[in-house]
Amino acid sequence: MTGENIMGTIDFGLPQASGVGKVLDGLFTFAPDWVRMTVLALVVAGFLAVWSVKLKRKTEYRRAVRSGQPIHAAAQYGQGRGADHLGSYAPGDGDRA
Questions:
Q1: Is the pLDDT of residue 70 over 80?
Q2: What distance in Å separates the CA atoms of residue 34 and residue 59, rounded to the nearest whole number?
Q3: Residue 64: CB partners within 8 Å, gap ≥ 6?
Q4: CA nearest 23: which of 33, 31, 11?
Q5: What is the pLDDT of residue 1?
Q6: Residue 58 pLDDT exceeds 80
Q7: What average pLDDT does this structure show over 46-63?
Q8: What predicted TM-score, i.e. pTM, was given to this entire model?
Q9: Is residue 2 within 8 Å of 12, Cβ to Cβ?
Q10: How far lies 80's CA from each of 32, 49, 70, 83, 86, in Å?
C-alpha cells in the first residue's frame, strides 16, 4: 500500500495524528510553491532564532561563571516566593499592622 501522494512524499498508509494535520496537508496541497517555500523559510528562521538565543544565553552564563560575576538566576528549588526568601528581613508575626 505504498505510493506517492500529491505532495510527492511517500505515503505508508498510516493514519494522520489528527484532523488538523489533514487540514494543513490540504492547505499546502493547494498552495503555490512560493507560499510553501515562504512558510518553510519562516519556520526554519524561527527555529534558528530560538537556537541562537539559547546559545547566546548559554555562552553568557558560562562567561559569567568563569569570571566570577554574580549570575541572575531563577529561584532555586525550595526557595519559596515573596517573603519566604527574605530570610531575616521577612516580617515576623508581631510586625503586621
A1: no
A2: 37
A3: 70, 71
A4: 31
A5: 46
A6: yes
A7: 93
A8: 0.48
A9: yes
A10: 53, 33, 21, 8, 9
Rounded distance between C-alpha atoms, residue 82 and residue 27, angstroms: 49
User: 39: which 3 cell numbers?
Assistant: 512558510
pLDDT tens per residue, range 3-51:
555 555 555 666 656 777 777 777 778 888 898 899 889 999 999 999 9
- In order, the DSSP letters of 12-73 are -SPPPS-HHHHHHHHHHHHS-HHHHHHHHHHHHHHHHHHHHHHHHHHHHHHHHHHHT-----
Tell me how far CA of residue 15 lies from CA of 20, 28, 60, 63, in angstroms.
12, 18, 45, 48
The three-class DSSP label of residue 85 is helix
Q: Which of 19, 18, 16, 40 is nearest to 28 (CA)?
A: 40
Number of C-beta neighbours around residue 36 at 10 A: 14
